[in-house]
Design goal:
Order of helices and strands: HEEEHHHHHHHHHHH
Number of helices: 12
Distance between the termini: 156 Å
Strand order of the largest sheet: 1-2-3
Helix content: over 70%
Largest sheet: 3 strands, antiparallel
Shape: elongated
Radius of gyration: 63 Å
Length: 402
């Protein structure tokens, strides 16, 4: 087989010179003196076959997308350039064509790789630029916990981005570091100020606790309860105390407050029992007062009401929830008596009015004059007296009824 293939692409002349046939003509590739021409051509064809095997390996590397396209192209160029002086017998033109294809494909791969690298580098740069801009925005944040967590995640994201220009990376990383340091500085300042504020708040709350503990023994229930409310307002306004002290201070304050109000509740409960008895007394007195009728003997009814009112005052306090309704009922009784008294006064005042007195005298005179005129049969005098009498009576009625 080898001798047949070799015979197609080469020959050995009578002096032993070995030739290979190419598209440009024959070219001497060596000399064979050791044996038959067939053996000589087979030897040089095997050397060609070794060269073809190298080309095939390059083709397989490209087909499998294995290896560096740049290395494949470099090897293919070297092999292709060696074809012009290769001491082999075989189809060198076919190898040249195959190597040209390998070189073109490898270079296309190189170009695609460079484009991909460039694109990846541009994307990496854009991603890192985005992280830098975010870091610089976060530098002014006051969300200390979440922003601190985000800075840590941001650094991890930065490390996960591959590619980019080292010089630009260094510049961008410096900006991230500067932003993170600025945030860390501001956070440190903030918490230092908070610690100072907490110390001040601890001092204020310690004073409030001492006052509350002193106030807890007070029996001046109203003012003490009001003061406890003021202390609570001041407690809230003081802000949080130092870490570890807040709960202990609050426990003391709350214990003092609860103790005071518990004592007050016990006292009020005893007092309410007494007040309930007073309420029963006042309800009976109200029933007596509401049964009085001032429209009859108003003086007697008024005297009885005054006696009831004296007993009412002596009965003492009632529970707060009953106070309003009882007072309203007593006020209604008093109002009824005042209305009757006012009406009586107005009537007495009208009867003693000089105008009413004069009108009554005038009516009396006209009535007598009318009687005389009728007795004498003086019709004209009767008519005049009747007209005048009617007018005077109307005036009197108006005067008496206001």
């Amino acid at each position: 087989m080898l001798i047949e293939q070799a015979g197609d692409w080469g020959r050995i002349d009578d002096d032993g010179t070995v030739y290979v046939r190419t598209a440009d003509g024959e070219r001497a590739v060596g000399s064979w003196q050791a044996g038959s021409r067939q053996a000589g051509l087979s030897f040089y064809y095997r050397k060609y076959d070794e060269l073809a095997t190298e080309v095939e390996l390059l083709e397989k590397r490209l087909a499998a997308d294995a290896g560096d396209a740049k290395s494949v192209a470099s090897t293919a160029v070297r092999l292709r350039e060696s074809l012009a002086t290769a001491n082999v017998v075989g189809d060198l033109g076919a190898l040249d064509t195959r190597l040209a294809t390998v070189i073109d494909t490898a270079r296309e791969r190189q170009a695609a790789h460079r484009a991909a690298v460039k694109e990846a580098s541009a994307k990496a740069l854009a991603d890192k630029q985005s992280l830098v801009e975010e870091a610089e925005r976060l530098a002014a944040s006051t969300e200390w916990k979440s922003t601190g967590d985000r800075f840590r995640a941001l650094v991890d994201e930065w490390r996960g981005i591959k590619g980019g220009d080292r010089r630009l990376d260094n510049e961008l990383w410096k900006r991230i570091s500067t932003a993170r340091e600025e945030f860390t500085r501001r956070r440190g300042t903030h918490f230092a100020a908070m610690d100072e504020q907490r110390k001040v708040a601890s001092g204020k709350k310690e004073k409030l606790v001492k006052e509350a503990e002193a106030l807890a023994e007070s029996k001046d229930w109203g003012p003490a309860a009001t003061r406890f409310k003021d202390l609570m307002v001041q407690w809230k306004a003081a802000g949080p105390a130092a870490k570890g002290a807040e709960d202990a201070l609050w426990a003391r304050f709350r214990a003092a407050q609860d103790g005071f109000f518990a004592r007050r509740s016990e006292v009020f409960a005893e007092r309410d029992k007494e007040y309930e008895g007073n309420q029963q007394v006042k309800e009976k007195l109200l029933a007596e007062a509401e049964a009085l009728d001032p429209s009859g003997d108003v003086d007697e009814a008024t005297r009885k009401l005054r006696e009831i009112q004296e007993r009412w005052e002596a009965a003492g306090k009632v529970p707060r929830e009953a106070m309003g309704s009882l007072e309203k009922r007593m006020e209604a009784v008093e109002k009824r008596f005042r209305e009757v008294s006012d009406k009586r006064w107005r009537q007495t005042d009208v009867q003693s009015s000089p105008l009413v007195v004069r009108l009554r005298e005038s009516v009396g005179k006209l009535e007598k004059k009318l009687e005389k005129a009728r007795a004498a049969g003086r019709d004209k005098d009767v008519a005049d007296a009747e007209a005048a009498l009617q007018t005077q009576r109307e005036w009197l009625s108006q005067a008496e009824h206001g």
